[in-house]
Amino acid sequence: MEFLKYSSNQSKDVTAIIAPAFEDSVPQQTKSLDKETSVISTGNKQGFSGKKGETFDIFNPNTGKRIMLIGLGKKGELSDETLRRAYSSAFSSLKSLPNGVVQVLLPDVLPGETKEVTFAIALAAYEFDRYRNEKNRIRIKKVLIATKSPEGTIREAKVVADAVNFTRDIANLPPSVGTPTLFEKTARKIEGVSVKAFGRNDFIRLGMGGLEGVSRAAREAAKLLILEYGPRDKKPLLIVGKGITFDSGGISIKPAEGMDEMKFDKCGASAIVGTMKLLSDLKVDKHVIGIAPLTENLPGGNAYKPGDILTHYNGVTSEVLSTDAEGRLVLADAISYGVKNFKPSAVIDLATLTGACVVALGSNYAGMMGNDDSLKNRIKKASKNSWERVWELPIDSDFQDQIKSKVADIKNTGGREGGAETAGAFLSRFVGDTPWVHLDIAGTAWTHKNGPGRAYLPAGATGYGVRLLYEFIRTE
User: Fold this and answer.
1) Pairing of strands 288-297, 243-247
2) 155, 254, 286, 474: which one is catalytic?
3) Is pLDDT of 392 > 70?
4) CA dihedral defined by 258, 361, 397, 380, rounded to 10 degrees?
5) Which position among 138, 261, 278, 416 has the lowest Cβ density within 10 Å, counted as fewest Cβ atoms?
6) Domains of the chain
7) The pLDDT of residue 97
8) Is 474 annotated as catalytic?
9) What is the pLDDT of residue 451?
10) pLDDT given at position 337
11) pTM for this model (two decimals)
């Protein structure tokens, strides 16, 4: 499906038009359309008033075009999120039009409208249907954005959306397909990105006790992937993503209900691979190291056990109280390896780490923790420029006290209270003095049944983190 800037000579090909309206005014592009079609007065007669979430759909026999009015609420209250939801919902209603060419009119109020509308429609076009015999095919062939912005704005937004959808594809894969080996093969196909892979023997040789322990019972070969992109003469940013390709909980096994969703425990690593692809596709002039610790977490006779003590790459020892708190164990080795060997300017890690974060923040925000106020503020700024929102949580000395162990340096769970924060406190022991932010994406990485319904977030993985990291990296 192509996304192009609309020009008047394409009007004869248009089969559908998406046109915005406010409660208190009508945008200029819609006014021009209304002069020819009287669509506003017709919609008003049918109860359309321009309220947020309203739509009015009509076929014009004179022009042979289908017109969909979308309500955006009051003009002074318009936000990027309102645009994303309204336009993606409208597109979803039209996407089965055979050989469709959709013209998209904009309200011309916010500076980033072209980018946000293109992005949202491209996300709404995604569906993970490779294992279904009956597929919901997107039949629209072109989306024409009527905008004053340059064609490059549309292209960039489409490339970003494609990277998010690429990330979704990896994260949505069944656990027996989306393996550490699959991640490595996928990463090696990205142009301009160098890839190095460590295996279990390397974990033992390097003293990566977390990765070695968690991967003991894995049937699939565990890996630590290291991806590098950009000019080597610049100090790198280090991004790290948790990649538990299936999490049964290990010996501390999870309940059967909902365990199928633990294929999504690889969403952090998927976001790392997707971000590296996006940087390459857009030729971003930044030096970035991406690290993904990848393994299954399964029970078995040789599985690591509650009561074990693991020694991590930086020498810190951790007591295992629950084998279902495995993500922080593999991240500990990945982060400390990256900090020591690449000396990054900053570290950002993403992980579907705790159910406690979902309880605290739902599906709307990732929990953000870190050791550097400047870095946290820059992440917050990048978050405001994307739909990927963050909310800061504390990891002060009280949470550090909760993870003190009597038999090791720290323990891998501090109990139910403050579970997201104690997980962040655990990771803080592996970054040293390097500026660091941890993003707990357990609530945002895939769509939850009680989460907000958004047409641009179809069922399954959301690709959370790719656009946020891109917005951060490109402005650094």
Assistant:
1) parallel
2) 254
3) yes
4) 120
5) 416
6) 2-149 (3.40.220.10), 163-475 (3.40.630.10)
7) 84
8) no
9) 57
10) 98
11) 0.96
* H/E stretch holding 37: helix 28-37
Residue in the block written with tokens 């656009």: 467
315: left (phi over 0), alpha (psi -120 to 50) or beta: left
| Residue 463 C-beta-side C-alpha neighbours within 13 Å | 32
Give the pLDDT confidence of 323-335 residue by residue, as tens digits: 999 999 999 999 9
- Dump pLDDT digits (tens) for 291-305: 999 999 999 999 999
Tokens of 356: 């406690």
Alpha helices in 309-454 (DSSP H): 327-342, 355-361, 373-384, 397-402, 419-427
Q: How far is CA 236 from CA 100, 272, 400, 435, 469, in A?
A: 44, 15, 29, 12, 14
State which H helix or E strand residue 7 sits in. none
Choose among 130, 128, 108: nearest CA to 117: 108
Token readout for 87 is 């336009």
Taking only the tens place, the pLDDT of each residue in 118-129 is: 999 999 999 898
Residue 69 has pLDDT above 90, yes or no: yes
155 is catalytic: no
Return the H-helix or E-strand segment holding 225: strand 223-229
Residue 425 has pLDDT above 70, yes or no: yes
Main-chain phi, psi angles of 69, to 5 degrees: -85, 135
What tens digit of pLDDT does each residue of 219-236 get? 999 999 999 999 999 999
Compare 382 and 60 and report the one with higher pLDDT.
382
Please say whether the beta carbons of 31 and 39 come within 8 A.
no
Burial class (CB in 10 A: 0-12, 13-18, 19+), 127: middle
Neighbours of 24 (CB within 10 A): 12
Please give the average per-residue pLDDT across 333-347, as a whole number: 98
CA distances from 463 to 273, 447, 456 (A): 11, 10, 11
Tell me how many helices (H) and strands (E) the chain has. Answer: 15, 18
Helix (H, G, I), strand (E, B) or coil at 140: strand
Which band of pLDDT confidence, cut at 50, 70 and 90, is reported for residue 453? low
Query: What is the average pLDDT value for the chain, to the nearest integer?
Result: 95
Report d(CA 456, CA 86) in Å as an integer.
Answer: 10
Tokens of 233: 């003469």
For 190-219, write each residue's pLDDT tens digit: 999 999 999 999 999 999 999 999 999 999
Question: Do the beta carbons of residue 173 and residue 182 sit within 8 Å?
Answer: yes
CB 294 within 8 Å of CB 322: no
Residue 252: closest CA among 310, 322, 201, 311? 322
The 10 Å Cβ neighbour count of residue 60 is 16
Given the residues 328, 378, 411, 429, select the one marked as catalytic. 328
